[in-house]
Write a structure and sequence with these properties.
The protein is α+β, with helices and mostly antiparallel strands. The protein has one helix and two strands. The chain has a two-stranded antiparallel ribbon with strand order 1-2. The longest helix is centred in the first third of the chain and has 23 residues.
């Protein structure tokens, strides 16, 4: 009988800790800035730019 009570108490404690952790977690947000641009020059092979946009 003691093992059943111990298991229930442990499960209750873990569930409570999980609920508190999720309640205190910050909301996910978008990264700032939402674009990144790079320019490159490869000498005789050419040059250019690349832009990455977060959605």
């Amino acid at each position: 009988m003691r093992h059943g009570t111990l298991g229930f108490g442990t499960a209750l404690a873990v569930g409570t800790a999980l609920a508190c952790t999720l309640a205190m977690a910050p909301a996910a947000g978008a990264v700032t800035p939402d674009t990144a641009t790079i320019g490159f020059d490869c000498g005789s092979y050419g040059s250019g730019t690349a832009t990455l946009t977060a959605t």
